[in-house]
Design a protein that fits this description.
By secondary structure, the protein is an alpha/beta fold. The chain contains 14 helices and 13 strands. 41% of the residues lie in helices and 17% in strands. The strands form 2 sheets. The chain has an 8-stranded mixed β-sheet, with helices on both faces. Strands 2-1-3-4-5 form a 5-stranded parallel β-sheet, with helices on both faces.
C-alpha cells in the first residue's frame, strides 16, 4: 500500500500533534506533509482543516481546496456540532466533520476519524488499481547490533530486484556509518544526506543521479558518512524523500539499524511491513520485546510487524516456540547460521543470492518469493505473552 499523504491545516501545534498521533494509529502507511515548498504542485490525499478559531477562514480554505482538487478528501475539525455549522462545512466541500471538545477528540470520535482515514486509503487504492502498482516498502529493524539486519535487508532487496525486474531501491538509514553499499561492493558518490539536503530540486533525474546502481538492477541510496546525521531535525525531510521514492520505485527496502530514533520512526510510519530481525539469544529477544512495545506506543502499526529469526541452528539455546510466546508473534521466517558463507559474501561485496547455491542463499530466495506471493508464507497467529520469565 502506498503512503497516504496528509496535510493538517491549523495554527494550533497541539492540534497538529494530536492529529499526527491519531493518523499514525490508523494502521495504514501515513506521511504527514508539514509544509509545501514554493512551486511544489504535489497534492495531498487528505486535508484536515481546523475551523475552530476562525470558521469563515476555514470554510474559505475548504472551498479553495475543493475547487482546485475535486478528488481529495477534506476533513473539517470544529469546536461544536451545531447542525448549521456541519451543513456549512459540507456545502463548502468537506467530506467528514469531527468535533474537537475542550479536552480533545473523544474516544468514539477518534475511532470514527481513524475509520474515515482507512476508508480514504481504500478508495485511493481502488481508484489507482488499474494504474501503476503502489510502491511496497519493507523496513528491516534489528533487535540489537550485530543481529544481521543489513545482511537480511541487502539480500532481500537484491532478490526483489532480480525476481521482479521492477524498479527497486534500498535506503540505508542506519546511524553511524551504514554498510549497505559496502555489503554490495559499491562505492557511492552520494548519500542519503545529499538527498534530504536538496529536496527543493529533487526530481526524478536528480534523484537518479544520487542513486548507485548494483549489477542486479537494485538502486542504492547509501548511508550517511557523518556520525550525527541523519538526526531528529532530518525526520520531516526524510518523510518527503520517502514519498518521492515511492513515486519512482515499485519496491523500497530500508535498513533502519537497531535504534528507534526520529528517522527510523519516519520509516516505520511509511512501511507496509516491519521486519524485526532477532537472534535466538536472551539479549536479542529482550530487546525485541522492547522494540515491539515501542512500536505499539508510537502507533506505527504493530500489526505490520513480522519476526525474522536469524542465525538459527539445531542446538537452540532458546526454542522457537518460547521466542514466539515471548514476543507475541509467530516467526515469519528463519535463516540458518552459516558464518563462513556469510562472511565470505560480505568480504567479497557480493550478495549471497548471487554467489552460490548454499542453503542460506536458498532461504533468502524463498523469503523474497514469499514477499512477492510466489510462495505461501507459514505465519503463526499473534499470541499473548508474559515477560521474559518464560525463558
Amino acid at each position: 500500500m502506498a503512503q497516504l499523504a496528509v496535510s493538517v491545516v491549523s495554527n494550533d501545534d497541539h492540534c497538529k500533534r494530536e492529529m499526527a498521533r491519531m493518523l499514525r494509529a490508523c494502521g495504514v502507511p501515513i506521511g504527514i506533509v508539514e509544509e509545501r515548498r514554493a512551486g511544489d504542485t504535489a497534492v495531498s490525499d487528505v486535508y484536515i482543516i481546523d475551523i475552530r478559531a476562525d470558521a469563515s477562514s476555514g470554510m474559505a480554505t475548504i472551498e479553495r481546496l475543493r475547487a482546485a482538487h475535486p478528488g481529495v478528501a477534506i476533513f473539517a475539525v470544529a469546536s461544536n456540532t451545531e447542525p448549521d455549522l456541519i451543513l456549512q462545512a459540507m456545502r463548502a466541500g468537506a467530506n467528514e466533520f469531527f468535533p474537537w471538545a475542550a479536552g480533545g477528540i473523544a474516544r468514539g470520535t477518534e475511532e470514527s476519524f481513524q475509520g474515515a482515514v482507512r476508508k480514504t486509503a481504500a478508495r485511493r487504492d481502488a481508484a489507482t488499481a488499474g494504474a501503476r502498482q503502489p510502491c511496497v516498502t519493507h523496513v528491516f529493524l534489528g533487535a540489537k547490533g550485530g543481529a544481521g539486519t543489513t545482511t537480511v535487508a541487502v539480500n532481500c532487496a537484491v532478490e526483489l530486484a532480480r525476481l521482479t525486474k521492477r524498479p527497486t531501491a534500498i535506503l540505508d538509514l542506519k546511524p553511524c556509518l551504514g554498510e549497505v553499499a559496502l555489503f554490495l561492493g559499491v562505492r557511492p558518490r552520494f548519500t542519503v544526506l545529499d538527498a534530504i539536503e536538496n529536496l527543493h530540486r529533487l526530481d526524478r533525474d536528480f534523484l537518479k543521479e544520487l542513486m548507485s546502481r548494483h549489477k542486479s538492477g537494485l538502486d542504492i541510496l547509501a548511508g550517511s558518512e557523518q556520525f550525527d546525521r541523519p538526526n531528529a531535525q532530518d525526520a520531516v525531510a526524510l518523510e518527503e524523500l520517502l514519498r518521492i521514492l515511492g513515486k519512482l520505485y515499485d519496491y523500497i527496502v530500508i535498513d533502519a539499524g537497531n535504534l528507534i530514533n526520529a528517522c527510523a520512526v519516519a520509516a516505520l510510519y511509511a512501511a507496509d511491513t516491519v521486519f524485526l530481525v532477532a537472534n535466538p539469544d536472551v539479549p536479542s529477544i529482550r530487546n525485541a520485546q522492547r522494540l515491539v512495545d515501542r512500536v505499539r506506543q508510537l502507533g506505527a502499526g504493530s500489526e505490520r510487524i513480522r519476526v525474522l529469526l536469524n542465525r538459527t541452528s539445531d542446538q537452540h539455546l532458546i526454542a522457537p516456540k518460547q521466542i514466539e510466546t515471548a514476543l507475541g508473534y509467530g516467526i515469519h521466517h528463519s535463516f540458518s547460521s552459516d558464518y563462513r558463507t556469510v562472511s565470505t559474501a560480505l568480504n567479497s561485496g557480493v550478495p549471497l543470492t548471487l554467489t552460490n547455491h548454499s542453503e542460506i542463499s536458498a532461504q533468502f530466495g524463498s523469503f523474497a518469493k514469499q514477499l512477492l506471493g510466489m510462495e505461501e508464507a507459514k505465519v503463526e497467529p499473534e499470541r499473548r505473552r508474559p515477560f521474559l520469565g518464560i525463558l
